[in-house]
Design a protein that fits this description.
Distance between the termini: 36 Å
Radius of gyration: 23 Å
Helix content: 55-70%
Structural class: mainly alpha
Shape: globular
Order of helices and strands: HHHHHHHHHHHHHHHHHHHH
Strand content: under 5%
Length: about 425
């Protein structure tokens, strides 16, 4: 697909926004925040696809923490003891809320927090676009695209992790762009990154690549960049050390999570389908995952989580080797479904993600022609990050940590197309003339 050169001048929308005054929180961000809150309240009034019952490991652990003070029993109502099947931060926060607000009030508080987190994502997009694209307009369109794609998933960390990632991206882009690459700044960034990784360990790849991109893009010296990266990495590792030591004390093995093997096994077996929703419809997921299988629970209890996870990894790899064609078919389907999730309740959010993905591809092309350095970050991340999810059952939840990287180029494309409209082009020329 051929790329069209984006306009060299800012659009009328950008010029109008610049006249409104340069503030740390642009006015469009306020409007996007309010719109997102309104959409979130509608989702709360008409709930689809979320809850805090059995089958949601993080919620089960949070309730167990509140009632018994133990980080364990993720597969309620089964009692399996201490666990590391999910990262600790979100269940711990859920446990605190459930402790002081048991029952429905606790769930309501977490849901409201999820609404605010989703709204923050929309509000931050103009700021992020201003830092990376030197224009707010792509961020405004990105924020609008996010409104139909966002979901209430308070039982999982997804919305909160995404909000933290976007906030981290904005704050580090601003700080490193201003030359703040001291060891203190690196330490603060590392602590923030460490906390995010305790919500989702897969974000370490995003965080590390993002910091590297910023240091290279702003042409900091090799020495300063290496010191910043080393301090950042050390701080992230130290934040995860207590969790790793806790797990070693229980199972005498270093493990940040113990669910890779069980997920890989439930994704690659004789009855497996490509998506989590279809696996659930056929009953395959319930047969092969401890979340609903008494047989798997019995084996997990007998072996312990670490050994059970290793056993399921071995069995899954053996199945993959003996069924290469079926594995390739599943992998091809999951590669598509990662970017274009299978429609499910609420289906409109899935179709919104489809639209964001479709718009982001030509959007990156426009950004490349405009020589925006962020393009190489997007390209590397899109190439590497999804690899782990191509071999697992697909779920739209797995896409959320990187959906902001699709929103930005999708918004950039819409901003360019908007500026090409005849009456907008005339207003842009007039506004540029008046500005001069």
């Amino acid at each position: 697909m051929a790329c069209i050169e984006p306009p060299a001048q800012p659009s009328a929308l950008d010029l109008m926004l610049s006249r409104a005054g340069k503030s740390r929180y642009p006015r469009p961000s306020h409007m996007l925040f309010l719109l997102a809150c309104w959409v979130g309240m509608l989702q709360l009034i008409y709930p689809v696809g979320y809850g805090f019952g059995n089958g949601y490991e993080m919620s089960s652990i949070g309730k167990n923490l509140a009632e018994h003070g133990v980080f364990g029993n993720p597969f309620a109502p089964f009692l399996t003891g201490p666990t590391a099947v999910v990262p600790p931060l979100h269940p711990f926060l859920l446990g605190l809320i459930y402790r002081f607000f048991p029952g429905p009030p606790g769930g309501f508080i977490v849901t409201i927090a999820n609404i605010l987190a989703n709204a923050l994502i929309a509000a931050l997009m103009p700021w992020l676009a201003l830092l990376l694209c030197r224009r707010q307009a792509p961020g405004i369109f990105a924020g609008l695209l996010w409104l139909p794609a966002m979901r209430l998933m308070p039982q999982w960390d997804a919305g909160f992790t995404l909000a933290a990632l976007v906030l981290f991206a904005v704050l580090t882009a601003e700080a490193i762009g201003r030359g703040k690459v001291s060891l203190g700044a690196a330490l603060l960034a590392g602590v923030a990154g460490g906390l995010i990784s305790l919500a989702n360990p897969a974000t370490v790849m995003i965080l590390g690549l993002w910091v590297l991109f910023l240091l290279v893009a702003h042409k900091h010296s090799t020495g300063a960049a290496m010191r910043f990266l080393a301090t950042f990495a050390l701080a992230v590792a130290l934040c995860n050390l207590p969790w790793a030591l806790r797990n070693y004390g229980i199972w005498h093995a270093f493990a940040l999570r113990t669910n890779f093997g069980m997920t890989l096994y439930s994704s690659n077996n004789d009855c497996a389908e490509s998506s989590l929703s279809r696996d659930g419809q056929t009953g395959c997921y319930q047969q092969t995952h401890p979340v609903a299988s008494p047989h798997e629970i019995a084996l997990l209890t007998q072996l312990g989580e670490v050994e059970f996870d290793r056993d399921r990894t071995t069995r899954a790899l053996a199945w993959i080797r003996s069924h290469p064609r079926r594995f390739l078919a599943l992998t091809r389907a999951r590669m598509i479904e990662f970017w274009f999730p299978e429609p499910g309740p609420p289906s409109y959010t899935m179709y919104a993600i489809w639209m964001i993905t479709a718009l982001s591809l030509p959007g990156v092309c426009f950004m490349a022609r405009h020589r925006l350095p962020v393009v190489w970050f997007l390209g590397v991340l899109w190439l590497v990050y999804p690899l782990m999810y191509y071999i697992m059952v697909s779920s739209d939840r797995y896409r959320y940590p990187v959906i902001w990287t699709s929103l930005l180029p999708a918004g950039y494309l819409l901003a360019v197309l908007w500026s090409k409209l005849p009456w907008i082009a005339r207003r842009t020329a007039l506004a540029a003339h008046q500005a001069n």
